[in-house]
Known about the structure:
Elements: H1 2-21, H2 27-56, E1 60-61, E2 64-65, H3 70-75, H4 87-91, H5 113-127, H6 144-153, H7 158-161, H8 166-178, H9 180-184, H10 193-203, E3 208-212, H11 219-230, H12 235-238, E4 239-245, H13 248-260, E5 265-269, E6 287-292, E7 301-302, H14 303-309, E8 324-325, H15 329-339, E9 340-351, H16 360-370, E10 374-380, E11 392-398, E12 408-414, E13 419-422, E14 425-427, H17 430-444, H18 447-468, H19 471-476, H20 482-506, H21 512-543, E15 555-559, H22 560-565, H23 573-576, H24 588-619
Parallel strand pairs: 3-4, 3-6, 4-5, 6-9, 10-12
Antiparallel strand pairs: 1-2, 7-8, 9-11, 10-11, 12-15, 13-14
Helix pairs in contact: 1-6, 2-8, 2-13, 10-11, 10-17, 17-18, 17-21, 18-21, 20-21
Amino acid sequence: MKISIRKLESELWDSADLLRQGSKLTSNQYCMPVLGLIFLRYAYSRFKRVEAEILKDRPLRNGRVMPVEASDFSAKSALFLPKEAQYEYLVNLPENIASAGLVNKDGHPMNSLGEVVNNAMQLIEEESEQLKGVLPKSYTDFKDDLLAELLRIFNNSALDEVGGDIIGRIYEYFLSKFAPVVASDDGVFFTPKSLVKMIVNILEPKSGVLLDCACGSGGMFVQSGDFVNATGMNANSAMTFYGQEKVEYNAQLCLMNMAVHGLTGVIKSGDEANTFYHDAHNLTGCCDYIMANPPFNVDKVKAESCESAGRLPFGLPSVNKNKEVGNGNYLWISYFYSYLNERGRAGFVMASSATDSQGKDKDIREKLIKTGHVDVMISVGNNFFYTKSLPCSLWFFDKAKSEAIRDKVLFIDARNYYTVVDRTLNEWSEWQLKNLNAIVWLYRGEFDKYRTLLWEYFNYLRGQAEAAENDALKEAVKKESFADIVTALKEVIASLRKVAKTEVESAEKREKKSVQQKYDDKIAYIENMLTVAKEANWLYEKFGDGEYSDVLGLCKVATISEIEEKGWSLTPGAYVGVAPIEDDGVDFAERMAEIHRELLSLQAESNDLMDTISQNMKELGI
């Protein structure tokens, strides 16, 4: 699915940009309306899912199912779409709008598709207080044929299958194509879903005030809402969401993103939302949770304005002769701490360099560590960001740490722990997120959560084996240990490959491809199980049935006195050490011989294919 998202983005862009090139619209005129159509399409997808849930237990009146109403959707924290704002309605309109006799919400006739889409946006704004004045309404700038083709392009079923912050994800992709300078200016870039989920999972938001004062397209709010809803509570009832975002476009996307996920919040944008100089919501000392991915390494921040704005409990970072803060990282870190109430938790993304920067930064870091409120530090490797390759760190504060860990910090070096999506992008899989979270549970003494995860692994593997109706798989997952399950699954795959080779070789020429595909699908299914089993074994080998211990190269619980000995560094690598190189059990000479045989085989196939093509061309007289 990860690769298909990348493919989908590329296809959407190629199609949409081709249309732009054939129009007289500039990139700026084109950008937000296109993102508005993506919003409409995704909103409709979610609307249909929620509608199906509502209709499932819908009462009858006079033998008929009662029609759904806006109140039914608000009860499920979802955005209600009037018929004229539903994507299916828009994409199926007749070519000649003027002849269709359509009127807008004020009763005036509509003569173009642009007017109809503008009307749809206005109807949605009437359904959502926080969307008023937010949605794009410049669709009359588009010729009807261009707009109709865009509607068709985004009427893609793949958008129904992608969860999470899809608007933000596709938004950044399009923005980076529309205006690369804007996309990377001042260190502003989209927060990858796996980093957001890691922050949410460790903070475990339950109820109270959540602030993201660099909220971008709102991914932190979306994932927090999902987390709270998954516990059986209603996110809008349990949480109050506040956001600040200097860039107006991003704030609009944030409100659109929240609305489509049924979340309400107060988002401020523009100069008053510049967090360096303004506490726009007056939330200092009031927040239960802080989550953010602020722009890194911002320079030329006015020192006097920062000082007068407050929120600097540990003092100003270094100020140059121009009375400017040369690097804003420790301003952000100070703000995040100052926003927390007496039991608050914070989780945020930060440049890796901030964990051991010197000068005034080091003084601030020392004071911060001495509070006992630094909880967890995680190093993240390269290529996690969508448009950047830089590494980063995740910082976590907790003002309500238990006495057992009051003077301790958990360091995790996860730079070598990830899943490769493609050449330029890495992420944590769902199971890797759970494993990293499990280390935090054990550090906090939450052993039951760890053991529940072990059972989740067993149940998943057994469920997959049952679903496949494969006796060899069922036997494989009955093994007592995850290590034995890994070995057994490898044996099943090896055996299946042999069978596949024999079956393909004996199949008729016209059936070879379908036979190969059948076995490829079976092998891919078991390889997915093997990947999960390996993750389970990775965790169990280190922590057994559930007891925290430091693991060389991965994690270390350090006391404040140990941190002082390291010069107040918060770099995980300084504490966890380097893991020994593991023998992967592969015989190098044997593997090289296998590769050589594979290359010879491929070369022979290539020669045969060329001979066939040459013969066909001769027969055609070419």
